[in-house]
Design brief:
By secondary structure, the chain is α+β, with helices and mostly antiparallel strands. The protein has six helices and eight strands, in the order αββαβααββαββαβ. It has two domains: 91 residues, 2-Layer Sandwich (Herpes Virus-1), CATH 3.30.40; 87 residues, Phosphatidylinositol 3-kinase Catalytic Subunit, Chain A, domain 1 (Ubiquitin-like (UB roll)), CATH 3.10.20. Helices cover 27% and strands 17% of the residues. It has a five-stranded mixed beta sheet with strand order 5-4-8-6-7. Strands 2-1-3 form a three-stranded antiparallel beta sheet. It holds the Pfam family zf-C3HC4_2.
């Protein structure tokens, strides 16, 4: 058993694998909860430092049912204690236990009723695990602009894949204006809606300290 321990113990928590999950890029395995938590602040494998994914590392994780079955067979009582822990967790919070139907390659329940879980990306925030950029949105001073509407929170943090059109929509929502009345500029130059934050940072702000400074102007509603 001692010879096998290094192959069935999680590098992150030093415990036996629970919901064993493997990184497809390097095939290292961890507990699901351990690796998901770790990848909230990193996109590299904690064991070999291989880059898992440029922006969404969770996409390259796969539940390893074979490994989990091996662990349960090798470690007496582990499956039973894990099932008991999960059952007590739900009972203590007055929640109903939900198990997903079995399928050939993803999710199912084992004979003890312990559900195998998977990553439901359809419900996840699309940009959650992207690289982020910090922005400062200042209102452009102009003698023609007589509007007193000003953004209260001028600092914004967003995905590098977000586009100028997304930023305009956020501004319009916060300022209570329609889309055609708000324009975003860099160095007095209007920015195209399709430009991403990454393109903007690399072409206009590379090498400069955060946050990236942008201006917004409000067009006269009577126009």
């Amino acid at each position: 058993m001692k010879e096998l321990n290094e192959h069935i113990v999680c590098f992150l928590c030093a415990g036996y694998f629970i919901d064993a999950t493997t990184i497809t890029e390097c095939l290292h395995t961890f507990c699901k909860s351990c690796i998901v938590k770790y990848l909230q602040t990193s996109k590299y494998c904690p064991m070999c430092n291989t880059k898992i994914h440029e922006t969404q590392p969770l996409l390259n994780l796969k539940l390893d049912r074979v490994m989990q079955d091996i662990v349960y067979k090798l470690v007496p009582g582990l499956q039973h204690s894990e099932e008991k822990r999960i059952r007590e967790f739900y009972q203590s919070r007055g929640l109903d236990r939900v198990t997903q139907p079995s399928s050939d390659d993803t999710v199912g329940g084992d004979p003890m009723g312990l559900p195998y879980s998977t990553f439901d990306h359809s419900r996840a925030h699309y940009f959650r695990y992207d690289e982020h950029v910090s922005l400062c949105l200042e209102k452009l001073s102009s003698s023609k602009d007589k509007s007193k509407v000003v953004l209260q929170q001028k600092y914004v943090r967003c995905s590098v894949r977000a586009q100028i059109r997304h930023l305009r929509r956020v501004l319009c929502h916060r300022l209570g204006l329609s889309l055609q009345h708000v324009q975003i500029l860099f160095d007095n130059e209007p920015l195209p809606d399709h430009m991403t934050m990454k393109q903007l940072w690399l072409s206009r702000w590379f090498g400069k300290p955060a946050p990236l400074l942008l201006h917004y102007s409000i067009k006269d509603k009577r126009r």
